[in-house]
Specification:
Shape: elongated
Largest sheet: 9 strands, mixed
Structural class: alpha/beta
Bound molecules: ligand BES, manganese (II) ion, zinc ion
Number of strands: 18
Radius of gyration: 24 Å
Length: 467
């Protein structure tokens, strides 16, 4: 037992030492053991949570322990709990992050998918209050961590709720309504929703080429979060909002196609970040731009070889209608220019190639700007929501050459995540721009299928401390 454990042990009349002496609990990472019916001390119940070997203790076992404890608590009648897990500090994490990540882990463990199962649901967890014990000297930083953690959790939960919805519910119109709801809930958030005629008037021929095959009308959602000084240049977040990606005429294989309901995760992360910033009352200005539509085949759909004109005036030969994300994002990025942003970050489930390269743990980070790339990558480390940098370079952009238009929307099979980023790069002249490819990190597949709420923690950390 470390210091905190000894204190609780003493206060409970040696209840923990008795369990340890009997060999009932080994302290393995995320192992839990409840001690109930205590007559002494401030608590009637103590939940022991393993932190693993002392030498390896740090952020990861700490987060796992908080998560495991919450899962256990959620199954009981416990309404109040106090965590002593960070009372002695957590090696490698500042008190602000120890508190913030505890809040995030508790909320992640309590999150439930709003499913449509008709069987009786397990009871809603009773847990409503969680306290954190920290050293007096750390209290002020920990309190800031709790505040920011609550905002990030609210934002992540909003992202998860939207992304987990089926595509027959979560349409572009549904997202537009959700955006209006968000703006109603927070005074500092304004939203504007543009419909097809206005999108056409803006000249977004690239965006509109993706929606052509769909019966659902597209929307362009524009958030303005004003927490900073009036007139201060905003950061722009541009999120891919494909509410379902069939591939269009370049139709996808059937297996796993249901997961393409998550193809609006970039958009959902913009909603989540705006929600988080508004909840925290962050002192910055941020605009969120979400082009949203379906990518469907039909008799009217865009065909391979069709040439379209983007809002920037550049012409694009659509060689593959399944490379649609970049077609809506390039117009979204161009639209962001009217806000004179000090930086533009787009977020997109853009390529299967990025999933092959990085899997689920890191998202892809692309930027020609060293400082911007560095600050985003550092935010990901701090937030425990990591991004790994991949190159954007001329050698790759050249692969997008077309005989018929300014560029093609796809290159060959090689370096697919990079050539996709290079396509967007062509629309960022004079902007400070970065691109996050979240195709692997935004949702889990298999038994734990569902949205992860990432990269809301990364984005919000960057906006609070790095942008
Ligand atoms: N939405 C997909 C990317 C994707 C794939 C996200 C797997 C999550 C999991 C994107 O629109 C797409 O289809 N990309 C193509 C690009 C290709 C045609 C150049 C891809 O990755 O296959
Ligand atoms: Mn696609
Ligand atoms: Zn897609």
């Amino acid at each position: 037992l470390a210091e905190a454990g000894r204190k609780v042990d003493r206060a409970s009349g040696g209840a923990i030492s008795r369990v340890l002496k009997r060999g009932d609990f080994s302290g393995k990472a995320a192992e839990t053991f409840p001690i109930v019916g205590l007559r002494r001390g401030p608590a009637e119940r103590i939940l022991l949570v393993g932190l693993g070997p002392k030498a390896g203790f740090g952020r990861k076992p700490y987060r796992r322990a908080v998560y495991a404890a919450t899962q256990w608590l959620a199954k009981t009648g416990a309404a109040n709990a106090v965590s002593w897990l960070a009372a002695d500090g957590v090696p490698g994490i500042e008190p602000y992050y120890a508190a913030r990540q505890a809040v995030e882990s508790v909320n992640n463990a309590l999150y439930r998918i709003p499913d449509r199962k008709t069987a009786k649901k397990p009871p809603v967890p009773k847990l409503t209050h969680v306290g954190l014990v920290v050293a007096d000297a750390d209290a002020a930083n920990a309190e800031r961590g709790v505040k920011d953690g609550r905002g990030i959790s609210a934002g992540s939960a909003l992202m998860k709720d939207l992304a987990n919805l089926p595509a027959n519910v979560c349409t572009p119109r549904y997202l537009a309504d959700a955006a209006k709801t968000l703006a109603k809930e927070h005074k500092a958030v304004r939203v504007q929703v543009l419909e097809e005629p206005e999108i056409r008037r803006l000249g977004m021929g690239s965006f509109l080429s993706v929606t052509r095959g769909s019966e659902e009308p597209p929307r362009l959602i524009v958030f303005e979060y004003s927490g900073g000084r009036k007139g201060e240049a905003p950061v722009a977040l541009v999120g891919k909002g494909i509410t379902f990606d069939t591939g269009g005429i370049s139709l996808k294989q059937p297996s796993g196609m249901d997961e393409m309901k998550f193809d609006m995760s970039g958009a959902a992360s913009v909603f989540g970040s705006i929600k988080a910033l508004a909840t925290i009352a962050a002192p910055i200005n941020v605009v969120g731009i979400v082009p949203t539509c379906e990518n469907m085949p039909s008799g009217r759909a865009t065909k391979p070889g069709d040439i379209v004109t983007s809002m920037a005036g550049k012409t694009i030969e659509v060689l593959n209608t399944d490379a649609e994300g970049r077609l809506i994002l390039c117009d979204g990025i161009t639209y962001s220019r009217r806000f004179k942003p000090r930086a533009v970050v787009d977020i997109a489930t853009l390529t299967g190639a990025c999933v092959v390269a990085l899997g689920a743990h890191y998202c892809g980070l692309f930027s020609p700007d060293e400082k911007l790339a560095e600050s985003l990558s550092a935010a990901g480390e701090r937030a425990d929501d990591r991004a790994w940098r991949l190159p954007v370079a001329e050698e790759y952009s050249e692969l997008l050459k077309s005989n018929f238009a300014d560029m093609a929307n796809v290159a060959g099979r090689e370096a697919g995540a990079i050539t996709a980023a290079c396509f967007l790069w062509k629309f960022t002249d004079g902007l400070k721009w970065a691109h996050l490819d979240i195709a692997g990190s935004a949702y889990l597949t298999g038994t734990h299928k569902g949205s992860t709420g990432r990269p809301v923690p990364l984005l919000v950390d960057w906006l609070l401390h790095g942008a």
